[in-house]
């Protein structure tokens, strides 16, 4: 069931991306946009594309706000008539109003937003119960730019390499993504290193990936979970400390822990049903060559313990979003209690 819901979610996300791209292609824009999620590369890319449609970063029809912006100044920007154009774009990044109560004045204003302005909210996370979220959903367009699946990343990375005159086998691409992780920022950096390393050579080989691409945060999270399964809490905390030193966000680490525990739960279900490797890979949502590694790690957990970890991940995530728990402390509690 979990696997099927996951596929449905991915299909729905792709439809939203297609609709967003159609807005850009046709130049027919919603009054309000909310772009949120963990994939910063996509958020930056869509911001750039929208900005270009409204005359560019230095254009007369573009205003940018970040963080705790002054509401009077924001409304003034939205009320300003566009210069020789139908609309102007106002972007507000990281307002955090999608996770807490938005000012009544702002919500009332957005109900009657002038049709000469387009407001784009760009956030890390959003609570779907939030009044502002529901308002944007009713009057505008909401799109979650979450971590992408392997299929989408493979196609994107192959096109990235093709523009540089490079080709890659599907098995090598899977290895690259498994090693680099699913962050498009990180993956683009690894692709640039591979392009430079291979020089005039056309084909990117497995050996190039092994030589150039460094271990990623997901590998370290995998190590954390392994240490937890063996009762080595101190070592798990050491991995966590290393990730914080590398300036990885605790919320991202918590999300990866939750995903990893869910993968292990799905892996145990695959083992119980006696699934073949390729079928198991599709069900879990990983590359086929990652299945044996997950199967080995899953042996150290019971179904009940994994369900317990998942419940706690959700509980701590809710606590962070409600402001009742600091993100760093949430991960520490998950690892030590």
Features:
single chain; 337 residues; alpha/beta; Rossmann fold; Helicase, Ruva Protein, domain 3; Zinc Finger, Delta Prime, domain 3; 3 domains; five-stranded parallel β-sheet; two-stranded parallel sheet; 7 strands; 61% helix; globular; disordered N terminus
Structure description:
- By secondary structure, the protein is α/β, with parallel strands linked by helices.
- It has three domains: 138 residues, Rossmann fold; 63 residues, Orthogonal Bundle (Helicase, Ruva Protein, domain 3); 120 residues, Zinc Finger, Delta Prime, domain 3 (Up-down Bundle).
- The protein is built from 16 helices and seven strands.
- The strands form two sheets. Strands 2-3-4-1-5 form a five-stranded parallel beta sheet, with helices on both faces. Strands 6-7 form a two-stranded parallel ribbon.
- Strand 2, helix 3 and strand 3 form a beta-alpha-beta unit.
- The two termini are 29 Å apart.
- The N terminus is likely disordered.
